[in-house]
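Small subunit processome component 20-like protein isoform X1
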Amino acid sequence: MLIVPSVGKLDHCLEELLYIAENDILGDVAEEKEVDKIASKMKETRKVKSFETLKLISQSITFSTHALKLLSHINIHIQKPLTPKKKVRLEKMLDHIAQGLECNPSAESDQLFIFAHGLIQDSISVESLKSQEGCEIQTNRLSIRDISYKGNSTTPQGSKNSHLTAVFALGVLHNRLKNMKLDKKDEQLLSMLDPFVSLLGDCLNSKYEDVLSGFRCLAPMIKLPLPSLEAQADKIKILLLDIAQKPGNANSLLVQSCLKLLTVLLRSTKITLSHDQLHMLIQFPVFIDLQTNPSPVALSLLKSVVGRKIVVHEIYDVVLRVGELMVTSQSEPIRKKCSQILLQFLLDYHLSDKRLQQHIDFFLTNLRQGSY
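Predicted structure tokens:
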């Protein structure tokens, strides 16, 4: 049984351990393992154990003094051109480091939030600067609780893979948010999370889909009474709609994530959707194909829209399809969601006599059929 070392016991030999793990995953040792003749001779070459080693190292070092050093060797590789195989291995290395940091007893939440905030902002700044030719590099970075990150930047400058650092930091942040209790009354916690609202909103501008994983971190934060949220909510809404309507995104997981986050925004903040925005939203395939391919995500969003009493002409037609789905769907959760939407709609929306009669006839027809 492998015993996890006490915190700090590996600090003095961190560089040596990282070198060994790096060489096993990315260096000469890794290349030798890929040679069939060598790989077939020894069972040790058939599986790379160094990923788990990185996780153990990460949960054993002193976080405050050695967390940034964990990334030093990886950042050297990020600055170089990467083959698809090496990129996958780097991502796996970063993922195991993130897992280890979450298990590190010395990684207090306030320090970890500062660490993640600095890395994300550095990476987003690099991406933004690369897209603005001729702009001067901004060296001033925001910090949490007036703590400066100057001199601690580990983000490779000018590398097309520098976004991997942001993906790593977002993973670190998400792991902590997932495993901690988010108390709405904890003022210290709220003050530490508030600076992330704007930062994660900036992540939605990224051209890298992996960086858009900031969705996962924003969702739990939106449910908290964070001061910056009301000011940033409308910006986040617009960015979500922009992502969702991009060509090629129609039925992707990315759009599903956008719609989920938009649902949380509508439920938890005071934002609303304009007529044009709602009109555009209803044209998405998840709404058009509601009867043939019912989407729980689309229904949840529609429930939030109806709950906010947002009116466009198309909403009346969509609700008719929801009524049909309530009767025809074989899924009980879908039927229940549809009935909730329909009830809310009938209670809150103005209906002409003709439309009201249409709904009454629909109910009576299906009640008669159900009695046979």
